[in-house]
Amino acid sequence: MENLSGKHILITSGPTRGYLDAVRYISNKSTGKLGATIAIEALNRGAFVTFVYGTDSITPDITLLNNDLSGRLTFIEIETIDELLAAIQKKLKDTSFDAIVHVMAVLDYTPAGHINGKLSSNNDKLTITLVKTQKIIKLIRQSWQNAFLVSFKLEVGLSKNDLIERAYTSLRENGTDLVVANNQNDIAGNKHVAYLINSDKKVEAICETRHDISNKLMDIISKQLTPLKV
Questions:
Q1: Parallel, antiparallel, or unpaired: how do β-strands 191-198 and 203-209 relate?
Q2: Does some domain include residue 205?
Q3: Predicted TM-score of the model (pTM)
Q4: Is 1 part of any domain?
Q5: pLDDT tens track for 51-85
Q6: Where in 81-201 does DSSP place strands (E)?
Q7: Angle at which helices 33-44 and 210-225 pack, to 10 degrees?
C-alpha cells in the first residue's frame, strides 16, 4: 500500500441543492457513498482530509475511526452551490492541498430565483426557469493549480468507448489530471464500474466497486505525490 502520510487532500462529496422557495428545492441522486469511501481510504493511508459534503449525504463515520484518523479529518457542510463557492473561495482560500478529488455532484442548472415564502400549490401548472451554474471544477483548478486534481464524469447508457471519449474530453476541458468515468447503468448496490483515465488518455485502472475505486485512486495519487528515488 502506498503511503500518503502528511499529505493534504480535499474531497468534495454528495449532492447540491437549488431552492425554489423556503421548503422546495431541486437536487440529484448522489448519496455521498463513494466520496466517504475514498475519504476513509485516504485517512487509512495517513493523509489529512478536508471533506466538503452536501447536506444529508453520507459522510465518513468518525465513530469507526481511531483518534489518530479522526484527528486528521475536517468536515465542511454545504447545501447550495453558493455555499460551495464560499467554501472554496473563502474558507479554504489559503489552504494548500496536494491532491483534490472532486466527487460532488454539482447541479448543472439551478432555479433562476427563489422566494422566501412558499409557492402556492393551487396552480395546475408551475413554470420554473433554470439557469446554468458555474463550472466548479474549473474554479478548483484555478484556485489550486499545483494540486493533483481528479474529476468525475457520470453518463447514462453510453458504450464503454463512448464513455471514455466523453470523460477524456471533460478532462481536457477542465484541466484535470485524472478523470473517473462511470455509467449510471453500472452502479447498483456494491457494484460500481469505473474507468480511471489519465491525461494521456490511458485507462490506468478498471474498477468494479466503490472500494476498488478508492484503492486504485489512492494508489495513483500516492505515486504522483511520492518523489522517485534515485
A1: antiparallel
A2: yes
A3: 0.94
A4: no
A5: 999 999 999 988 878 888 889 999 999 999 999 99
A6: 99-102, 109-111, 130-132, 148-155, 178-188, 191-198
A7: 50
